[in-house]
Amino acid sequence: MAMMTGGEYLASLDDGRRVFADGQEIKDLSAHPQFATALDLIAAGYDEHHRPGEDACGPYFAIPRSRDELKRLLEELLHWDMVTVTTSQGLLALLTAAARIRPSSEEYARRIEDYFEYCKDNDLRCVQAITDAKGDRMRSPGAQDDPDVYTRIVERRPDGIVVRGAKLHISSAAVSHELVVMPTKKMKPGEEDWAVACAIPVNSPGVRIVNTNYAPRERTPDFPHSSRHNMPEGFVILDDVFVPNERVFLAGETEHSATFAHSLGLWERLGGTAHLVEIGDTLVGLAQLIAEANGTERVSHIREKIAEMIIYATLVRAGLEAAIANAEPSPEGWYFPSELFTNAAKHFGAAEFSAMVRHLHDIGGGSIVTAPSIADLEHEEIGPAIRKYMRTKEGVDGEYRTRLFHAIRDYTADAFGGWQLVTMLQSGGGLYAQRLVARKHYPMDKAKALGLKVAGIPEN
Fold first, then answer.
1. φ, ψ for residue 413 (rounded to 5)?
2. Taking the mean position of all CA atoms in its chain, how far away is CA 395?
3. 8 Å CB contact between 161 and 153
4. Residue 217: which of 225, 227, 230, 232 has the closest Cα?
């Protein structure tokens, strides 16, 4: 098969998928404003990467076989649209899971590798469907009032399985081709029906996707970032969906249920850290720009806040570099990032992110949320007055400063800013999950030996 162009990608979405938004079923995604920007971004990505030839494939299907290749992949993905990023991360997560379960299940590992080749051959885009509805968090899957609140197998057939449930927070599901379903957590003996991993085409009978979006619907000049960069968020309903055996990667083996979640968490946290590096630098840049525009760049507490933001951005970058430098090969020769450094870096970046946003808001001031709109700025009568009073000094006119305020509001304090604040915290499984993995992979014996040495106590 050949790579798709942007036009071919758009045509591929007319496949009978069932998508809902704003209380109605959407028959034509390209005609609905909630999906317009996302489709433009993804189609542009297809066109950018397209190469002719039957053997051509995109760089998002690359499997890193060295630390240098892993670093290069991370540098490239920062320039891809979200769907292309999730395709790369999700398929690498599947390969990571395959490497870990191969000793006890060669068949599942082979199916995963075949699925990877299928996606590559057809130039498909995939999203990972992992978070279940979960119901009462104090109860296990089997003890819920409704057993469907954790996605489960409801029927086993000779040729496949039937699954039912819902997957939440599935970014870009409606504009992708494939749903890679994984268990949301470790399942215990007796919870075999909930230990399921599989791949489902988005247009499969029984799949419905309900969408929300943080894209602005009007006044787009006042939203300089989110009007150009947004994706739909999908609430995916799986209503007795049949999955053939070749697309089933786990069907009851509870001992491997956490393997998929941990594998996906590793790659999502690595990608999240890479984006946090870029976001951290952006926050620093916005803080310095608005401080200079306000004339406060030399005020001591402003300088200190920006210095703290610089240290934050630098430490997140250091954690990312350490995760790559300490990457390890699988028996197949695939390189996976360090679990310890990936989780520690993502945890630090996410835990301190809100403090960096707070610094930016403190530096910028109230006009972040009260600056007049760009339409008012361009109004024949009131525009000149706005320019006059938004100006601060030579070289900083009213329009420049107003546009900076709109950029900060859009990026950190409006619909996109709120989405980003929660996403930075929750992507890759939340802070607690990252602490657990970091603790598991930390060299505690070495640390204890150092403690005993200081105490003058011989090691046992």
1. -130, 10
2. 39
3. yes
4. 227
Query: Tell me, what's the pLDDT at 326?
Result: 97
Which among 262, 260, 204 has a CA at the least distance from the CA of 236? Answer: 204
pLDDT, tens digit (0-9, with 9 covering 90-100), for 322-360: 999 999 999 999 999 999 999 999 999 999 999 999 999
The predicted-structure confidence for 417-446, as pLDDT tens digits, reads as follows: 999 999 998 888 889 999 999 999 999 999
* DSSP H stretches of helix in 295-373: 300-325, 339-351, 353-364, 367-370
Task: Give the burial class of 395: count Cβ atoms within 10 A of its Cβ; 0-12 exposed, 13-18 middle, 19 or more buried.
Answer: exposed
Find, among 444, 435, 268, the residue nearest to 344 by Cα. 435
In this prediction, residues 133-158 reach a mean pLDDT of 95
Q: How far is CA 74 from the centre of its chain?
A: 13
Q: Which tokens hold the place of 307?
A: 């210095």
pLDDT attached to residue 460: 77
Count of all residues that appear for the chain in the document: 460
> What gap in Å lies between CA 315 and CA 344, rounded to an integer?
11
> How far is Cα of residue 423 from the mean position of the Cα atoms in its chain?
8
Which bin fits 152, alpha (ψ -120 to 50), beta or left (φ > 0)? beta
Percent of the chain scored above 90 by pLDDT? Answer: 91
The span from the CA of 243 to the CA of 399, in Å, is 56
Buried b (16+ CB within 10 A) or exposed e, 71-91: bebbeebeebbbbbbbbbbbb
Q: What whole-number distance in Å separates Cα of residue 254 and Cα of residue 391?
A: 63
| Whole-angstrom distance, CA of residue 130 vs CA of residue 260 | 9
List, in sequence order, every residue forming a beta bridge with 152; answer none if it has no partner: 164
Tell me the pLDDT tens digit for each residue of 179-212: 999 999 999 999 999 999 999 999 999 999 999 9
- Tokens (6 digits) for 46: 């297809």
Query: Going by DSSP bridges, is the β-strand pair 126-129/24-26 parallel, antiparallel, or unpaired?
Result: unpaired
Tokens of 17: 């998928």
Of 2, 57, 99, which Cα lies nearest the Cα of 336? 99
The two tokens of residue 302 are 């402003």
Question: How far apart, in whole angstroms, are the C-alpha atoms of residue 339 and residue 349?
Answer: 15
CA-wise closest residue to 442 among 336, 342, 320, 349: 342
Q: What letter represents residue 125's amino acid? A: R
pTM of the entire predicted model? 0.91
Quote the radius of gyration of the chain (alpha carbons, Å).
24
